[in-house]
Amino acid sequence: MSNDAAKPEVVSAKAKSAPNAIKFLFGGLSGMGATMVVQPLDLVKTRMQISGVGGGKKEYRNSFHCIQQIVSREGPLALYKGISAALLRQATYTTGRLGMYTYLNDLYKERFDRNPNVVDSMAMGTIAGACGAFIGTPAEVALVRMTSDGRLPIAERRNYTNVANALTRITREEGLTALWRGSLPTVGRAMVVNMTQLASYSQFKKYFHEGPLQMNEGIKLHFCASMLSGLLTTMTSMPLDIAKTRIQNMKTVDGKPEYRGTADVLLRVARQEGVFALWKGFTPYYCRLGPHTVLTFILLEQMNQGYNKYVLGADTSSGL
């Protein structure tokens, strides 16, 4: 009798987890919080990726020169140009991808009663990335244009005042479909990023926790796993990121777009600027992605742990 009476309690404990809406909310908030810190690096990355288009003269020698030029020409606040679009991007893209990944991760553990392996984590990361990227493409288009606008001659600038103005004008001047311009490389990049970032984060975290180092659960563990995850993600996703940036920033002249698609961008960059130009802006990209990954996962883990402890009354985390 005592064993039978205990069964409902076990089932109840297993079912006690954060609602999906909370998981999606925490995913978005963690990404937005991280973006407030790293936005200047994202702007520098975008400017460097556009610099030297078509084999022309490079505008910036390195990341520090780029920052110096932006501050001297446009003022220090210019480093936060496009912040409204960046926050909207996180509210859509990151909410979708981290919420979906957390949901799939918890569903997997509940169904198979074990942690997912590398292949499983990569599959879940890919699905989560594709979903989030498609939802977030309009904000991505606005972000790329707003962050790159300052490098253009005054007569050629779009001068979007904020993300709402950007989305409205793009729709009015170029059509609704222009909001999803570059969606293919955006979704492709997101699939690579999430497959690498989310899966490798889970595996690095597991290794540091259960391997020779035996790190305890906490910020130190999250930091180490995030930095290594960010490095792998930077190396694998940069070519698609530069294709995404060039396509979303391009202008149509006499009805003819500058690039025909992702493959055209990659081939022309490699031919005109060199193969290594596909990794142009590597330093600001990693310096942005690394800390952003760290901050996003740390914030996400802390919010999950806080919710579990103070709302659900449990000490274990349902995070990644």
UniProtKB/TrEMBL annotation:
<comment type="similarity">
    <text>Belongs to the mitochondrial carrier (TC 2.A.29) family.</text>
</comment>
<keyword id="KW-0472">Membrane</keyword>
<dbReference type="GO" id="GO:0016020">
    <property type="term" value="C:membrane"/>
</dbReference>
<dbReference type="GO" id="GO:0006869">
    <property type="term" value="P:lipid transport"/>
</dbReference>
<dbReference type="Pfam" id="PF00153">
    <property type="entry name" value="Mito_carr"/>
</dbReference>
<keyword id="KW-0445">Lipid transport</keyword>
<keyword id="KW-0812">Transmembrane</keyword>
<keyword id="KW-0677">Repeat</keyword>
<dbReference type="GO" id="GO:0015297">
    <property type="term" value="F:antiporter activity"/>
</dbReference>
<feature type="repeat" description="Solcar">
    <location>
        <begin position="22"/>
        <end position="107"/>
    </location>
</feature>
<protein>
    <recommendedName>
        <fullName>Mitochondrial 2-oxoglutarate/malate carrier protein</fullName>
    </recommendedName>
</protein>
<dbReference type="InterPro" id="IPR023395">
    <property type="entry name" value="MCP_dom_sf"/>
</dbReference>
<feature type="repeat" description="Solcar">
    <location>
        <begin position="217"/>
        <end position="306"/>
    </location>
</feature>
<keyword id="KW-1133">Transmembrane helix</keyword>
<keyword id="KW-0813">Transport</keyword>
<keyword id="KW-0050">Antiport</keyword>
<dbReference type="InterPro" id="IPR050391">
    <property type="entry name" value="Mito_Metabolite_Transporter"/>
</dbReference>
<dbReference type="InterPro" id="IPR018108">
    <property type="entry name" value="MCP_transmembrane"/>
</dbReference>
<feature type="repeat" description="Solcar">
    <location>
        <begin position="116"/>
        <end position="207"/>
    </location>
</feature>
